[in-house]
Specification:
The chain has 470 residues and is of the alpha/beta class. The protein is built from 17 helices and 17 strands. Strands 5-6-9-10-11-12-13-14 form an eight-stranded parallel β-barrel, surrounded by six helices. A two-stranded antiparallel ribbon has the order 1-2.
Amino acid sequence: MGELAFPLQLSRQKPRFRNATLDGDDGFRRRSPRPHMKFSPLLHRRRPPNLPLSLNSIMASITTRAPTLPSAALPAPPSEEEGNLDDDLCSSGTAIVWKRQKHETGTETRADCFLGSPSGYLCGKARVERAWAHWNKLGRPRLIVAPMVDNSELPFRMLCRKYGAEAAYTPMLHSRIFTENEKYRSQEFTTCQEDRPLFVQFCANNPDVLLEAAKRVEPFCDYVDINLGCPQHIARRGNYGAFLMDNLPLVRSLVQKLAANLHVPVSCKIRIFPDLRDTIEYAKMLEEAGCSLLAVHGRTRDQKDQRKIRADWDAITAVKNAVRIPVLANGNIRHLDDVQSCLKETGADGVLSADALLENPALFAGFRTAEWAVGEKISESNLDQAELLVEYLKLCEKYPVPWRMICCHVYKMLGEWFRVHPQVRDDLNAQSCLTFEFLYSLVDQLRQLGARMPLYVKDENIAEIPTHGA
């Protein structure tokens, strides 16, 4: 196979972007890790064997493209010279086309996650039975990568899956931009055949727009998830996430629209109300509207500091006891002991972890950082975060993503190392463009300085995580 030609490195010049960019008037924002840093592809000598499934190439091959909105509704796209340089993919290539298999009769089959006809017409009992049938078919995953904007992208999901994660969410995708902007679709959502079970999460405040976005991804996921839990100011400005808790009729209409028209189940990720009774009624309403799985973050919309405010597992327990569909717990999952405690205390069917996974993607395999290495039965392992970063970078070469995502993970995984050797961090900050070659050399530089911060494991065998109902 011949060599691929890729764009040359970006030249040193004054950056054309700042810490955050605003898309349209809905308040959706993407952040750049460093305002002065630009990124460029590293040349691949050979085409990787299993490139990710780009949504555009897949959809073009197997389904009719949904109609786009009128061009007048679109913000003017930036020119090639004016676009954000950190949005450039870390590498390039032609994504493989995932073709539908055919029966002997020659008719096309749907993706394995499809349940047949949409469930909008089913009665409550039948919906619940179908929700559990789907969950059982997926193997009842309990260790799940939470949705994280710009952080739970394909290479990171695949790294977490290698180290014990049994399912994963995509980053939150903006439903309107997803339906309107082809570049956004191709960069922000990629997957591969091993990336299952998969939740694709959207934020939305328009049922029709949400459905159009969901239709584009339903062949490639196991749940379409509605973000009802984002507490950030940008969500308030855009009127989505946790701020839809002020408009429950709209929330109901979003769930009903998907449940009545999709062939894959609808899931929702929520935060709790200050009043437990309101939370329980909220959860019941979502179930009645057609939600097949509920992920509950045990903090309110105003409780944003996760290090200072512990998640309320009692509230999650109350929701689990009030509804009949699978429930996932989110909050306070920092190591595997927390997983066991949460499942036991809440009765939840699985747990989500977010920030702790960013620092330690091997969390679900029983590894923990030094912060949580307490007790006499904890010992050093042969694994450290620098090694995890190298594995992540290799996955990024295989599954291209925007450089801004890679840079975020570098700072997260090597944060403690940079505190010990700030000169290495300063060297990274001084770069006007990034390559894989530089990032690998940065890890080598830390090694040469004698830096090693091992991850820790328990000496005894970790007890088996209890199954539902145990």
